[in-house]
Amino acid sequence: MEILKLTALELSAKIKAGEIKVKDAVKAALDRIKEAEPAVNSFVTIDEAGAYRQAEIIQEEIDAGRMTGLLAGVPAAVKDNLCMDGILTTCSSRILSGFRPAYTAQAVENLQKAGVVILGKTNMDEFAMGSTTETSCYGPAKNPHNTGHVPGGSSGGSCAAVAAGECFGALGSDTGGSIRQPGSFCGVVGLKPTYGTVSRYGLIAYGSSLDQIGPVTRDVSDCAAFLEAIASHDPKDSTSVERPDYHFTGALVDDVKGLRIGIPKDYMGEGLDPEVRQAVMEAAAVLKKRGAAVEMADLGLVRYAIPAYYTIAAAEASSNLERFDGVKYGYRAEDYDGLHDMYKKTRSEGFGPEVKRRILLGSFVLSSGYYDAYYLKALRTKALIKKEFDKAFEKYDLLLGPTAPTVAPKLGESLGDPLKMYLGDIYTISVNLAGLPGMTVPVGKNREGLPIGMQLIGKPFDEKTLIRAAYTYECATEKQYEEVVLDINTAAKEAE
Amino acid sequence: MTGQYETVIGLEVHIELATKTKIFCGCSTEFGGAPNIHTCPVCTGMPGALPVLNKKVVEYAVALGIATNCRITQVCRFDRKNYFYPDNPQNYQISQLYLPIARNGCVEIETPSGTKKIRIHEMHMEEDAGKLVHNEWDDTSLVDYNRSGVPLVEIVSEPDMRSADEVIAYLEKLRMIAQYLGVSDCKLQEGSMRADVNLSVRRAGTEEFGTRTEMKNLNSFKAIAHAIEGERMRQIELLEAGKEVVQETRRWDDNKEHSYAMRSKEDARDYRYFPEPDLVPVVISDQWISEIKARQPELRPEKIERYTREFDIPRYDAELLTESWKIADIFEKTVQLCGKPKKVSNWMMGEMFRLMKEKGKEPEELDFSPEHLAKLIELSDQGAISSSVAKKVFEHIFAENADPEKYVEEQGLMSVSDEGALREAVEKVIAQNPRAVADYKGGRQKAFGAIMGQSMRALKGKADPAAVTKIIREMLDAQQ
To answer: I need a surface site. Which of A193, A230, B173, B210 has the fewest CB within 10 A?
Structure first.
């Protein structure tokens, strides 16, 4: 039996049945990491000793019948912007070098309580700013399907790790598409929950009003199980919402009869790669065949999402990142003359260019005299975009479209033209602005073998409809994850 | 020359709220303690930590808002004020700009020309910063975050004050309200009440305001009065010399009695305020406001009414006894214990105020327990101690919170009430002073005083004078 080919749910079932030991699952994943890392660079910290320690405890709990959860014994990874007690947590930034938090993010703690073994921290764009994982201070992560291409970002490390079979699931964070876009590029399932569903406590903030933690998994069932494990009402996060129902795996139903699905016209127009378009339309046809009512839909203000997003996210980021000043933790410049020089040098040396760009942009839009013209206007735009979605959801149960306009670009192609890179977020960003749940599901590959993702967007707090539609699609087609695991072998060989 | 100018003053007053825990985390607000002992990831600005609003802070701020006749903003919000300084761990302060908790209020102060209304522009909630400790020896600075996140309310007045006296009256009024409400102890020395003074001068009779300066670092009423006088003179001198007042922030050095420019309008910081995304808007329902109102303790005007009505004490006394919350508190507690409001009032109005003046003690510094004053009144009423002894005992209650029973016993001050002992003492005095006795018998009343005085001296003042008088008369009359 090949452990690495199993989904998280299958693996946990076998562990609980006594067929596989937790430490063997951990060893299989760690071996795979050693094999794949030179090619993918999806991990920035690997906690081998900690993983075996956790495995032992969890095995005991399972053997004693105290731990029976769906994910008990499953090895997974978390993005490097999630704090873990005593574990290096850097957001892939030099400025947080050496930072070991004294607390664990609530979402990670929830996973641990569910019996998940955390293998380590995954690579990301610095402070989640970027769409390629190339702004990381650890060097770029690579796309396991073709290591000459980026995995997407900012949760590129988490998505690449899952795609490469280095773990059975991972946590990412999504501020403007940072789970869904790399999920699409890497051919894995990724979900950004409704804002407030997963506690942000311990997530190092980028754009606080937009950030959400979510799962990256091999298939839809795992996605539902991971979401179920991490979602909770947390009094430590004032924006956390108490939901009446956290039973997301209950939505794993192979049925979309009568479901009204709208495909926003503006998501299928100019700028969209024809191969992506075709794959998404074919996926829509699958759902139609299974009984859903699918039609083209109107959704207004799509083109205003990007400027509104980059204004709001940059503004919040400029303030959120002020605490990294060399005083309390992380990097401090070596030579400086007084306090202000220390601030200047530390921040100049500690942050990379994309982070600096957004701090400057954010500081500018909040400056007195510009606040109304930019920040306030962006907030109003955000409210209008939300209204447009409300209007669409009067007619549809969910919206369907591409996750990204293209497949994964080649390494080094994006950073030179940030505006073009920002445009790649056009389909995912408005979902964050409106606080809605969004999901990416692999729907095939282009001629070069690069994955294509379909995005499903739901009403607030309606993750279950997304999961049901995605699950139905998955049942009707061939599951993608096995192929992904095989593909890495060739990629790793190529890298050698 | 200075008489031709009018001084215009507005105040920004920070009051530290007396909640048990900080505004955005569960850490203790206790003053002092080892550095960084009352801290957690939230109040030290650790990455990933999030603020959670302490509801008590809102209740205290609303109570202050109601007591100062403000309109409560029923959907209010927090904003971030961004600036870099090491005592500010996130490098932004969570404060309120766009929708502060209360607005448009006023308080009344007493001035020589009558009652005056000082308008309150707004009141907002915010977090306090930590404290920097400079180590001169190795030229380093250390940060103590114990105070970081202690809740503050900032009360911004309109420029309605015209003199240092009015400013002090306004501050005393705010302090009294806060203390009566129990929302703050308002200790200037410990920094739980701080004031920034915005001051400008203009020629008497003109409408337009002059250019103002802001003075910081004022931590006593005396410093505030000095700073106002100093700044007023500085501005007038500038204008008289044909120069202009520059809009700037100045730092008052009370030791040198001089203010220094900190930063001018040109280098005014741009705080880049924006709504705090980590906190949801605070919704204050009508019901919540009525609950807070219902819990609102009795304020001074009601207390004065009740004292005159219930305790039958003169209005003047009631006014003095309620001037400070602390004094009113001691008064009420003592009355509750001994049930003799008039006697309690007499002790406090007489001896206590005398000693406070003599020792320069502020009401907040009074630390004797009402139990001891009540006991003293009992002892005195029972005739167990004489009135002169009682006064002496009170001094010790006032100074070191002495227990009167113990003190009287230890010092042997109990009145001699044993008739035999009194007679013995008087008999001796009469026997030793035949001359005075003869004078008295000869009709010279003054001689009685001499016998009385000697008898009391012999009894070391521990006897009830009325009882001694009676015995002397009896004995002298019997001799006739």
So the answer is: B173
DSSP per-residue codes, A161-179: HHHTTSSS-EEEEESSSTT
pLDDT tens digit sequence for A11-37:
999 999 999 999 999 999 999 999 999
Q: Which residues of A touch B (CB under 8 A)?
A: 81-83, 89, 91, 96, 99, 101-103, 105, 200-205, 207-209, 235-239, 315-316, 318-319, 322-325, 327-329, 339, 343, 363, 366-368, 371, 375
Contact B46 A105 (CB under 8 A): no
In this prediction, residue A488 carries a pLDDT of 53
- SS3 label, residue A357: helix
Question: A75-108 burial, b for 16+ CB within 10 Å, e for fewer?
Answer: bbbbbbbbbbeebbbbbbbbbbeebebebbbbbb
- A82: which strand partners? A203
pLDDT (mean) for A274-298: 96
Is residue A398 assigned to a domain?
Answer: no
Q: Which of B479, B132, B172 is nearest to B323 (CA)?
A: B172
3-state secondary structure of A73: coil
List the domain range (segments joined by +) for residue A239.
Answer: 3-255+437-495
Q: pLDDT value at position B137?
A: 81
Q: Do B82 and A103 touch (CB under 8 A)?
A: no
Indicate the range of A479-493, B45-59, B137-151 predicted with least confidence.
A479-493
Distance CA A238, CA A332 (A): 32
pLDDT tier for residue B428 given thresholds of 50, 70 and 90: confident
- pTM score > 0.80 for this model? yes
Domains annotated for chain B, with CATH where assigned, are 2-287 (no CATH), 298-411 (no CATH), 419-479 (1.10.10.410)
Query: Of B44, B279, B280, which has the smallest distance from its Cβ to A328's Cβ?
Result: B44
For B190-200, write each residue's pLDDT tens digit: 888 999 999 99
By C-alpha distance, which of A494, A445, A486 is closest to A164?
A486
Q: What are phi and psi of A125, to 5 degrees?
A: -65, 145
One-letter amino acid at B156 equals: V
Asked whether the predicted pLDDT for residue A120 surpasses 90, the reply is yes
Would A274 be classed as within a structural domain? Answer: no
Q: What is the DSSP letter of B19?
A: -
**Is the model more confident about B181 or about B219?**
B181
Q: Which residue of A has its CA nearest to B93?
A: A319
Q: Which residues of A touch B46 (CB under 8 A)?
A: 101-103, 328-329
Contact B272 A208 (CB under 8 A): no
Q: What is the pLDDT of residue A487?
A: 53
Burial label for A471, CB within 10 Å (0-12, 13-18, 19+), is buried
Q: Are A252 and A227 in contact (CB under 8 A)?
A: no
CATH code of the domain covering residue A229: 3.90.1300.10
Question: If you search the block for the tokens 């982070």, which residue do you land on?
Answer: A355
Q: How many domains does chain A have?
A: 1
